[in-house]
Design goal:
By secondary structure, the chain is mostly helical. The chain folds into two domains: 40 residues, no CATH class; 55 residues, no CATH class. The protein has five helices and no strands.
Length: 96
């Protein structure tokens, strides 16, 4: 563990040579440790960090295509309505 910690610290510092990056590494390491001790699954969090920027850029592109009127854009697309319907069912199903 000490070797992994040292390699992480050296690698983080060598990218931009800023101490703030080391503090962020320590902060996120502590957050990960607390989440692991609280039995939170870490895979969905990592997937969210990876897919979040991709989702945001594609959502921005969709808003530009729809010219700001997302409701009409969604209502005229049958595949989008089907996906939204499935999402609503999957969100409500555990409550039922």
């Amino acid at each position: 563990m000490a070797g992994v910690l040292m390699i992480s610290l050296i690698g983080t510092y060598s990218v931009a040579r800023q101490i703030n990056d080391l503090w962020l590494l320590i902060l996120f390491g502590l957050i990960g440790y607390v989440l692991r001790k609280a039995n939170y699954p870490l895979a969905p969090i990592v997937i969210g960090f990876v897919l979040g920027p991709i989702f945001e850029s594609n959502f921005r592109r969709t808003v530009l295509i729809a010219q700001g009127n997302l409701l009409d854009y969604v209502q005229t697309r049958p595949i989008t309505l089907g996906v939204l319907f499935c999402v609503c069912i999957f969100l409500v199903w555990p409550l039922v």
